[in-house]
Amino acid sequence: MIAFYLPGGIPIYAFSLLLALGVFFGMVWVVWQLSDKEASRNMEAGIWTLLGALVGSRMVFVAFNWPYFQDHPWESLQVYLGGLSWPGALAGGLLVLALYAGVNHHPFEELADALVPLLVCLSVSAWLGCWLDGCAYGAAVSNWWGVPSSDEWGQVVSRSPVQLIGALFTLGLFWSSERAVRRGNFKSGTLACLGVLNLSLISFGLSFLRVDPVLSWRGLHLDAWAALAFAGLGLIALLTIYSRKKGKA
User: Which end of the chain is more exposed for a tag (fewer CB within 10 A), N or C?
Assistant: First the structure.
């Protein structure tokens, strides 16, 4: 879906626009009310993490659509044409953030916690972008709770509000997690682990409501398998953090 055209007839797509807004508000949230030193550190870490997320998301999308890109190799670099993968984005972002933390001798857990608002804003904007762009949509319904939503062919009908549920659940779970972490005596890294867990569980649960054509294996969408893998990673990381704390006590 094209949101508007720039001078010269350059199209600006709704999905890209919403992701850009997610990046903007996420980065503002990340540096809000911090000292110049902390804000600079978080901003730099956020930029590198976003770069890793972009590269990772595109690489995974190209890999799973290799028969097409094998015949059109240059299109693999044309990200603006569309085609991103959230598991690739999360994996690439975490990997680059870990490398950034190691090279600059910053605590990885603290940086990961600091960038959770960026993860939340990007997740919400991606769900809303999918609603406008015809991806990750639900089945057609005639109930009162259906919302107008298009498919990849542009056909708009009343559908289960999968994307809106994803956006609202993302905000709700982050709000509750963030409040719990702020009120309790939790160790660094807790909020980041909960963020990964929340994102993964939402994606896994909503995969059963999606009817868009996606690759599957053993009866589950590949996105659902990736969500389970990241949920396991988040849980293991959380257990590691607190087992390490217990060992030091």
Answer: C
